């Protein structure tokens, strides 16, 4: 899933965010944030547990 903000100023300068989803669980496994073509933030998720 790719998110493109309409105004980068309202999203702290980010121009694009990519959210990688796990196919079996549909949960996010990684978020990549870009300013132009430069990767400025990477968040990886592991051992996600959902409590019900």
Highlighted features:
single chain, 52 residues, mainly beta, four-stranded antiparallel beta sheet
Task: Describe what you observe in this structure.
The chain is mostly beta strands and 52 residues long. The chain has a domain of 33 residues. 0% of the residues lie in helices and 44% in strands. It is built from no helices and 4 strands. The chain has a 4-stranded antiparallel sheet with strand order 1-2-3-4, with no helix packed on it. The model has no long low-confidence stretch (mean pLDDT 85).
Short description:
By secondary structure, the chain is an all-beta fold.
Residue stretches low in confidence (pLDDT < 50, at least 5 long) are: none
What is the N-to-C succession of helices and strands? EEEE
The overall average pLDDT, rounded, is: 85
Q: Report how far the terminal alpha carbons are from each other.
A: 26 Å
What is the beta-strand fraction? Answer: 35-45%
Kindly report the spatial arrangement of strands forming the biggest sheet: 1-2-3-4
Number of strands: 4
Helix content, binned percent: under 10%
Q: Sheet with the most strands?
A: 4 strands, antiparallel
How many whole angstroms does the radius of gyration measure?
13 Å
Quickly give the structural class. mainly beta
> Helix tally?
0
Shape: elongated
């Amino acid at each position: 899933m790719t998110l493109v903000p309409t105004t980068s100023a309202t999203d702290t300068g980010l121009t694009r965010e990519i959210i990688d989803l796990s196919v079996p669980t549909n949960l996010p496994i990684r978020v990549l944030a870009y300013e132009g073509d430069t990767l400025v933030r990477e968040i990886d998720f592991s051992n996600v547990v959902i409590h019900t």
